[in-house]
Design a protein that fits this description.
Shape: extended
Number of strands: 10
Number of helices: 22
Largest sheet: 6 strands, mixed
Low-confidence stretches: 54-70, 75-119, 121-131
Number of domains: 3
Radius of gyration: 33 Å
């Protein structure tokens, strides 16, 4: 068999993502702060780019109706035309899908400036109370003040390293003695000194010891309190009569001690959790006006991009009479890239506003009534309304935060699955159903808490089809105990 070489042509189709398209998609899923950091890096690479935090892209201009519902307006400025003095205009690239132009909006009369959107969120953060020392620093400071012996100070530091976020000791004395190469008695001696530190309850090895330390600190540790703290299992079961018998006292005396115990903190180190506090400024702000709801970007955290066209022209003119192709190519590419980045940023802002406006329009009842008014909503519903692909809506809503009259929420939180109703209709959002279950439980008789079956029956009376297992699932999601546990807690509260 002889092999003969031949020439042939073959056609195939493939999707090629240009660098500009990749950049635009990347910007879509960035928060305002992410964009700020991204632009700061771009400015270092491109000499024709400038970032301004004062003159933002989006300004208070004539309001427009984002949807057919007049209750929702989007405040947006038309994109200025950028001169094409150097190089090709990258905005002519047609590969970018879901292009949105503000010219499609029907602009009306000017509205007052959005004071909320223009507020400086740095000022809000500065008003937060000064954070306390972290737990480790707090303990080490007390060790330095109260323990002078070098060996004991070393053991104390080992015990401090073993402390958990709750304030309890995470290792046994035997384990720490093995690490320190000393006797258990030495560890326990130092531990007693550490248990006298503030706040009371630190370095406890169990719940009983934690509450005992706090009772001693408040000078309310007597025989009755000792009996109660040594029999926490009976207390948890609500067997107050048995506790009274063991303490040789009356149930009334047990109830008095229970009230004191309720004031104790089982996690004494919880006050140091403020070191993990983080305040994120919202990316989108929704405010209520006389005409409905207005959607705007948070201008205090969103920078604008400025192209130094004058500088670019100066460089271009200086090399006209020179054969410096390298400089000319660099200038042209840099300006072209800057123009594309500016247009991509404006595209991102416009797309974000359009999607956020549609979400507000779809969930108007939520902003008026609360969780009970939350409607089932999917990515497809929003994508169809704004004439975009579902993937675009998903990218925009993945991490953005929206400030509303009802509080701050992620855009993703407005999407919810539908629960069927007994009557014909569009169904009810799962979040609204969970809120309804929580309301039913909060209004129940504490002496006779409702079972999951009973809750399901009450919800069905309101026109929502709900199975018992669904009630149990939602109840666990909201960290609501079952009826038996709620009955036990009610019994203890009544005894106090």
């Amino acid at each position: 068999m002889q092999l003969i070489p031949s020439l042939g042509q073959k056609q195939k189709q493939s999707l090629v993502m240009t660098p500009q398209l990749q950049q635009a998609i990347k910007l879509l899923q960035m928060t305002n702060l992410d964009i700020k950091n991204y632009l700061e890096n771009e400015v270092l690479e491109n000499p024709f780019l400038e970032v301004s935090c004062e003159d933002t892209i989006l300004r208070d201009t004539p309001s427009s109706e984002a949807t057919e519902n007049s209750d929702v307006r989007i405040e947006i400025e038309s994109v200025d035309n950028v001169s094409a003095a150097i190089g090709d205009d990258p905005t002519e690239n047609k590969d970018f899908d879901n292009r949105y132009s503000s010219s499609a909006l029907d602009l009306g009369n000017c509205k007052p400036k959005n004071q909320i959107a223009d507020s400086n969120w740095d000022d809000i953060i500065s008003n937060i109370a000064e954070q306390t020392d972290n737990l480790n620093t707090h303990i080490l400071r007390q060790i330095e003040l109260n323990i002078k012996n070098t060996q004991e100070k070393f053991i104390a530091c080992m015990l401090a390293d073993a402390i958990e976020a709750s304030g309890w000791l995470g290792k046994t004395c035997s384990e720490i003695a093995s690490i320190c190469k000393c006797d258990v008695e030495e560890i326990e001696t130092v531990l007693q000194k550490l248990q006298a530190f503030e706040p009371a309850g630190l370095f406890a090895r169990n719940l009983s010891e934690c509450l005992t330390l706090q009772a001693k600190e408040q000078e309310c540790y007597d025989k009755i309190m000792e009996t109660i703290l040594e029999n926490l299992e009976l207390l948890g079961k609500g067997e107050l009569a048995t506790l009274a018998k063991k303490a040789s006292t009356e149930i009334g005396e047990i109830s008095k001690r229970l009230k004191i115990i309720q004031s104790f903190n089982p996690k004494p180190a919880s006050s140091f959790d403020t070191e993990y506090l983080s305040v994120n400024a919202p990316d989108i702000i929704v405010r209520e006006s006389s005409d409905g709801f207005v959607v705007d970007l948070n201008r205090s955290t969103l920078p604008s991009l400025v192209i130094n066209e004058k500088y670019a022209k100066q460089i271009n003119n200086s090399i006209l009479n020179k054969k410096d192709e390298k400089t000319k190519s660099f200038t042209s590419d840099s300006v072209s890239s800057a123009r594309w980045l500016k247009r991509s940023l404006e595209q991102r802002n416009n797309t974000t506003l359009k999607i956020a406006g549609e979400i507000v329009n779809q969930q108007t009842d939520f902003f008026k009534e609360g969780l009970s008014g939350l409607k089932p909503l999917s990515l497809k519903d929003v994508a169809t309304a704004v004439n975009m692909h579902e993937s675009t809506v998903s990218r925009v809503t993945s991490g953005l935060l929206m400030s509303t009259p009802k509080g701050c929420f992620t855009l993703k939180s407005f999407f919810s699955v539908s629960i069927a109703t007994t009557e014909s209709g569009d169904g009810t959002a799962a979040a609204a159903v969970r809120h309804l279950i929580k309301t039913v439980i909060s209004n129940e008789n504490p002496k006779k808490p409702l079972s999951d079956d009973a809750i399901a029956a009450l919800v069905c009376q309101k026109g929502i089809k709900l199975a018992r297992r669904t009630v149990a699932k939602y109840r666990e999601m909201m960290k609501i105990p079952p009826s038996s546990e709620r009955r036990r807690r009610a019994k203890l509260n009544m005894a106090i």
